[in-house]
Every structure is written in structure tokens, then in C-alpha cells.
């Protein structure tokens, strides 16, 4: 059917009323928006209709297909090796891409990583990379391919050529309260990842207070949909469901997370960051054909961290993409936010829980994220935690340090943190870090016995 027979308002109304759209109708909406024939306000209405009423499998697959083919699908077949990428559905303190990509590349697996910016309360890999002075994430596709060929690694944002529909929708979802929607999340992730020229993909599907998908049952649905789309496109796809009921690591904010990543590549890890990073990097090395099992991939990951090759890979890619390698080699010399303050406990006890969402929102208020899609991001704003779940806390002791260049934002952030930290008298019940795995055989509970190299099962 010709596009001219469709009426945008009628399609929005159809979705608002809970009906399903055809492949042709979805194609019309995505093409029209990509060509600037459909304004932001109408696409915003459509996104909200999808958010409220969902999409069936056929609609979601059609949406992913149209977003993928809204631009170029890169061909990296001339580069030797199995190209593998990783994607996280988003969390607070989730700096894992910055750590595992250099690890996997140093182990011999090409990692073509096209990343996004912060969404809502979660940080974005591009914003973190741009906190490194001079780092250029805006490479064209020729530079993208040349950099992978030279270093087995590249970090870029979406170009106008790669899934342009997703690039525009990604920013619009962030400011229209339509982020937490399974079909929109799935189509966004897979259109971008499938366009970048990969052969295989590892997914970190987060659930809990700091994730877009709070409920583990919904996370299972999202993970299965992501794996199904990858399988439809004949890409080896593996998803792990991981716990985001407290922030990952101790540092939240753009440069702060880069700094923590550098220490991880020096083999100085927070336990939770270590475990999930190694699992994902081990899986990538396995899918990349450089290990016979995920556990062997973990062993290879640890080897390139301990012999310094992973950190050197990060230094090399920062230099290649125009960044200041001096602060990678000596992060202690980096610029700091103009203002900082301590957030202290008002009682003795044990940290019962940390609401990751509220911590993420506090970091956003300090300047580390965006309220509007055009807002600048403060590279040095954020939060450094001093306590995690299960830690003993004394009255007057600092739970966290807050950093910002806008001193007036402390009050709002502190009000959020008062609600985020729950302190009680007894140790909380441990929570499992990695709960499930999904591959082409389906969903199952994650078996820690298959990865004896990992040391920490719970927090």
C-alpha cells in the first residue's frame, strides 16, 4: 500500500485505542518521522500510545526491522574474526562497557561498539567517554571500520547513517516518559546493534529499582524478545538477567565512572562490578571463538587485565579517538567538580537497601544527566558511595559524597538520598547478582556452577 493513503492521526488513535498496527502502517510512521514529515509532537503521542497499550510480537519485529533499515547496515565481513558487541538495558553506576570492551578486544575479539547517551536516571556510555577531554565519538563509517581493523575496538555514537530512526526516537523517549516500554526498548537496542556489523551479541538485561524494567518477570519477557529478534536476524545472541537493586560499584556520574573503570582495568575492582563484567566479557570471548566456554573466557579476561593489555587497549583507543591519555594513565590528576558535600547517616545500623532509581535521580539533579534532550551534561557531577547493602553504618558517618558545579542543587539531591538509603538493625537477606540466562534454547535460571571462576554470587 502506498504511504499516501495513511493518516497519522488515525494511526495514533488506532494505537491509543489498543488496536494493532500493520507492518505497512509502522513502516509509514518510521519513514515519515525519519524524513521530518512527521513532527515530534505526533511521534510523542504515538510513543505514549505504545507505552500504554504495548505491541504484539509482529508489531515489535516490524518496528525493529524498520528502525534497522532506516539507514545503512554496516558490512564488516572484511575484518577478520567474529565481531561481538555487548549491550546493557541501563542501570545506575553501570560503567561495564568501558571495562569489558578493552578486555575483549585485548583478548583478540573485534568489538564494534555503537553506544547511546543517558536515558532518564541512567547514564550513557557516550556521555562517559566524552568526559575524557578530546574524546571523539563522532567518527564516520570509514573511520569506524578503520579503527576496528587497527585496534579490534571502537566507541562511537550513532551516525546519521546508522539506524537514524532510533537515534531520534531514543532522545524523544528520554523526555516524554516513554523509556520503560519493552517493545520500544527491544526495537531500539536491536536496530542499533544489528546495524553496526556484528556477528554475535551479549545482553545485560537489568531488573530492580535502578533498571527501566523493575520486575524480574518483565525482564524475562524483554530478554526473550531481544534474543528472539537477534535469532531472527541469524546473530548468535545471549542474554543475562542481572540485579540492579543497588548501584553498580561505588561511583555514579560520567567522569567518576570512567575513573572507577580505570581502576578496574588495574585489577582493583568493586566485587559486584568484577563479577558481572567478567561474566559478560567471558561470554563475548566465548562467542568470539577465542574460548571454549564462558568460564575459559573469564580466565582470559583476567589474564589480559593482570598483564596490563586491557588497560593499554583503553589507552590506545583513547589516543586513537583524540582523547587525553594522561588522565587515563593518571586519573588522580583529572579535573574535579567545583563543589562537594558529604551525606551522613543519622543513625547507627546496617545498610538494608539502596534505591538505585533515587540515587540515579539525585545524580541527575547534580548535573550528571538530562531533564530535556538538549540539556548539557556536567562531566564531573555525580555521587561516590561509601557504603553498600550489608555494610555497617555509624551515626554521623558519610554514606556518600556529592559532586556538582551547581551548589544550589545539593538540597534537591539530598532530599532524594534521604529516601534512597534504608538503614536498619539487622543484615538484609542476600540477593543474587545474576538471576537468569536466555539463549536460543530458551530461558533458565543462571547456574553459577558453570562459571567457577566467579567468586561472588550475592550482595
Write a structural description:
- 43% of the residues lie in helices and 16% in strands.
- The protein has helices spanning 8-16, 23-34, 40-53, 57-68, 96-106, 125-129, 141-151, 164-174, 182-195, 216-232, 254-265, 271-287, 294-306, 309-320, 326-329, 356-368, 410-420, and strands at 84-88, 111-115, 153-157, 200-207, 236-243, 251-252, 339-344, 349-354, 382-385, 392-393, 398-404, 421-424, 434-439, 442-445.
- The protein has 17 helices and 14 strands.
- Helix 10 (216-232) links the parallel strand 4 and strand 5.
- The protein has a 5-stranded mixed sheet, sandwiched between helices.
- The protein has 459 residues and is α+β, with helices and mostly antiparallel strands.
- The radius of gyration is 21 Å and the shape is globular.
- It has 3 domains: 3-54, Up-down Bundle (Transferase, Pyrimidine Nucleoside Phosphorylase, Chain A, domain 3); 84-330 and 432-450, Pyrimidine Nucleoside Phosphorylase, Chain A, domain 2; 336-424, Aldehyde Oxidoreductase, domain 3, CATH 3.90.1170.
- The model has no long low-confidence stretch (mean pLDDT 93).
Amino acid at each position: 500500500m502506498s504511504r499516501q493513503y495513511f493518516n497519522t492521526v488515525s494511526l495514533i488513535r488506532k494505537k491509543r485505542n489498543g488496536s494493532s498496527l500493520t507492518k505497512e502502517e509502522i513502516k509509514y510512521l518510521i519513514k515519515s518521522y525519519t524524513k521530518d514529515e512527521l513532527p515530534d509532537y505526533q511521534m510523542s503521542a504515538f510513543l505514549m500510545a505504545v507505552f500504554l497499550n504495548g505491541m504484539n510480537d509482529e508489531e515489535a519485529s516490524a518496528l525493529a526491522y524498520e528502525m534497522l533499515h532506516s539507514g545503512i547496515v554496516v558490512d564488516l565481513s572484511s575484518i577478520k574474526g567474529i565481531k561481538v558487541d555487548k549491550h546493557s538495558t541501563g542501570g545506575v553506576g553501570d560503567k561495564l562497557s568501558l571495562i569489558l570492551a578493552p578486555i575483549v578486544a585485548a583478548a583478540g575479539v573485534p568489538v564494534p561498539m555503537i553506544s547511546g547517551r543517558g536515558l532518564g536516571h541512567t547514564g550513557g556510555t557516550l556521555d562517559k567517554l566524552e568526559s575524557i577531554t578530546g574524546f571523539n565519538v563522532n567518527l564516520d563509517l570509514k573511520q569506524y571500520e578503520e579503527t576496528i581493523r587497527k585496534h579490534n575496538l571502537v566507541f562511537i555514537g550513532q551516525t546519521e547513517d546508522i539506524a537514524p530512526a532510533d537515534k531520534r526516537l531514543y532522545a524523544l523517549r528520554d523526555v516524554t516518559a516513554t523509556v520503560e516500554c519493552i517493545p520500544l526498548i527491544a526495537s531500539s537496542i536491536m536496530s542499533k546493534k544489528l546495524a553496526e556489523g556484528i556477528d554475535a551479541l551479549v545482553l545485560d538485561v537489568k531488573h530492580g529499582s535502578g533498571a527501566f524494567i523493575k520486575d524480574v518477570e518483565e525482564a524475562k519477557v524483554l530478554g526473550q524478545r531481544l534474543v528472539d529478534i537477534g535469532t531472527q536476524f541469524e546473530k548468535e545472541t545471549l542474554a543475562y538477567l542481572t540485579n540492579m537493586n543497588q548501584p553498580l560499584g561505588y561511583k555514579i556520574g560520567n567522569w567518576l565512572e570512567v575513573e572507577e573503570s580505570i581502576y578496574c582495568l588495574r585489577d582493583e575492582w568493586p566485587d559486584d562490578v568484577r563479577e558481572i563484567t567478567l561474566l559478560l566479557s567471558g561470554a563475548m570471548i566465548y562467542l568470539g571463538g577465542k574460548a571454549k566456554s564462558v568460564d575459559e573466557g573469564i580466565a582470559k579476561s583476567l589474564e589480559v587485565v593482570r598483564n596490563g593489555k586491557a588497560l593499554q587497549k583503553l589507552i590506545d583507543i583513547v589516543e586513537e579517538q583524540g582523547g587525553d591519555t594522561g588522565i587515563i594513565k593518571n586519573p588522580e590528576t583529572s579535573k574535579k567538580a567545583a563543589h562537594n558535600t558529604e551525606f551522613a547517616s543519622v543513625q547507627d545500623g546496617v545498610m538494608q537497601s539502596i534505591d538505585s532509581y533515587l540515587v540515579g535521580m539525585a545524580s541527575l539533579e547534580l548535573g550528571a544527566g538530562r531533564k530535556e534532550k538538549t540539556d548539557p551534561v556536567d562531566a564531573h557531577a555525580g555521587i561516590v558511595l561509601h557504603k553498600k547493602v550489608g555494610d555497617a553504618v555509624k551515626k554521623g558517618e558519610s554514606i556518600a559524597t556529592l559532586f556538582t558545579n551547581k551548589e544550589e542543587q545539593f538540597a534537591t539531591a539530598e532530599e532524594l538520598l534521604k529516601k534512597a538509603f534504608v538503614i536498619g538493625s539487622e543484615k538484609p537477606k542476600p540477593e543474587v547478582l545474576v538471576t537468569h540466562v536466555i539463549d536460543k534454547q530458551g530461558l533458565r535460571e543462571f547456574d553459577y556452577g558453570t562459571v567457577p571462576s566467579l567468586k561472588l554470587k550475592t550482595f
